[in-house]
TrEMBL record:
Its cofactor is Zn(2+). One of several proteins that assist in the late maturation steps of the functional core of the 30S ribosomal subunit. Helps release RbfA from mature subunits. May play a role in the assembly of ribosomal proteins into the subunit. Circularly permuted GTPase that catalyzes slow GTP hydrolysis, GTPase activity is stimulated by the 30S ribosomal subunit. The gene is rsgA. Keywords: Cytoplasm, GTP-binding, Hydrolase, Metal-binding, Nucleotide-binding, Ribosome biogenesis, RNA-binding, rRNA-binding, Zinc. It holds the Pfam family RsgA_GTPase. This is Small ribosomal subunit biogenesis GTPase RsgA. Its EC number is 3.6.1.-. CDD domains: YjeQ_EngC. Belongs to the TRAFAC class YlqF/YawG GTPase family. RsgA subfamily. GTP binds at T144, K145, A146, D147, G194, P195, S196, G197, A198, G199, K200, S201, T202. The lineage of its organism: Bacteria, Bacillati, Actinomycetota, Actinomycetes, Micromonosporales. Monomer. Associates with 30S ribosomal subunit, binds 16S rRNA. Transmembrane segments: none annotated. Binds 1 zinc ion per subunit. It is an enzyme of class 3 (hydrolase).
Length: 351
């Protein structure tokens, strides 16, 4: 079994093997069906209704390892169970509801793509890094289209300042610059993350050694591209591992990403240890080491503003989730109370 299967998955799958099920890795899942990769090729399998109800984060998604009951004469293959996830890349839904949306599961490396052919947006990069860190995978920032960049060294320094603890590599699909270094650091299942026009699919084709992913032109006016990747694809890499290409993200909302934010802003977290007050919010408090660093120019004011903005967004998302959970509990209590009242009325009618 390819596509990232290893001894740990083999051990976890043992009970399913005994039940006559086969392992499969899900490429995409929607509307009660999933497309999955198996030793027998690509399989379309039904997803039981119970697996689609309840928490959306528990529903089968791209990258999941699943146990399938093989198809028989007159019956399609059926997804029987999903193995426990090692990692999960989650964002808030585009509708900004309290539910999260899983972009990919069981990812080892998240490649955050940033185009050098367009103005740098460090806030967006920080958002994607927070998602990547929160997932449990290892993020890498890849600056694409180095052949179109005016000052590559300066851009790399800027992005490195916004991504402490993360390798920032420079690549060009045109000249091949940096591709050998990138290939050497990628491990396991690799997901490409970034906005449309960042060159994800072109970069993916370089890694795959062929034009297997669709690419498209980018508008000169704003550097944006169309969603040439309309669905998720899972393809084996020539040197080992698997590449997961995703559609470009127009919206990158945070969902329960506190740990990811702390790692993304590790420099601010470290400075905060020197603040006079342990609950310092780094706004106007006396003795704030973070504000002192901003005033000294060692931390850009933009970065602190981004930190505050993303913390507020994450706190708001968490509050909406808490409100949904509380509403669910209240609904259960209400149903129980209604049932009890109906029971009492029935008993009284029998007297």
């Amino acid at each position: 079994m390819r596509y990232g299967w290893d001894d740990a998955y083999e051990h976890a799958f043992a009970p399913h093997h005994a039940a006559g099920l086969i392992p499969a890795r899900i490429v995409r899942a929607e509307r009660g069906l999933c497309e999955a990769l198996t030793d027998m090729g690509t399989v379309r399998a039904e997803i039981p209704g119970a697996a689609q109800q309840g928490d959306p984060l528990a529903a089968p998604c791209t990258g999941d390892w699943a146990a399938l009951r093989p198809a028989t004469t007159g019956h399609a293959a059926v997804l029987h169970a999903v193995l426990e996830r090692r990692t999960a890349l989650v964002r808030s839904t585009a509708s900004r509801t309290s539910h999260g949306q899983i972009l990919a599961a069981n990812v080892d490396t998240v490649v955050v793509t940033v185009s050098l052919a367009a103005p740098l947006k460090h806030g967006r990069t920080e958002r994607m890094l927070a998602l990547a860190w929160e997932s449990g995978a290892q993020p890498i920032v890849v600056l694409t289209k180095a052949d179109a960049g005016a000052d590559v060294a300066s851009a790399q320094a800027e992005v490195s300042a916004a991504a402490p603890g993360v390798d920032v590599l420079v690549t060009s699909a045109v000249t091949g610059q940096g591709m050998d270094i990138l290939t050497a650091v990628l491990t396991g299942t690799v997901v490409l993350l970034g906005p449309s026009g960042a060159g994800k699919s072109t970069l993916g084709n370089q890694l795959l050694g062929g034009d297997l992913l669709a690419t498209g032109a980018v508008r000169a006016a704003d550097g944006k591209g169309r969603h040439t990747t309309a669905w998720r694809e899972l393809l084996p890499l020539p040197g080992g591992g698997v590449l997961l290409d995703t559609p470009g993200l127009r919206s990158i909302g945070l969902h329960d990403a506190q740990d990811g934010l702390e790692q993304t802003f590790a420099d601010i977290q470290h400075l905060a240890q020197g603040c006079r007050f342990t609950d310092c919010a780094h706004v106007s408090e006396p003795g704030c080491a973070v504000l002192a660093a901003v005033e000294a120019g060692t931390v850009p004011a933009r970065r602190l503003d981004s930190y505050h903005r993303l913390l507020r967004e994450n706190a708001y998302a968490a509050s909406r989730t808490d409100a949904r959970v509380q509403a669910g509990r209240e609904a259960v209590k209400k149903n129980i109370a209604q049932h009890l009242r109906a029971t009492y009325r029935f008993r009284e009618g029998q007297l």
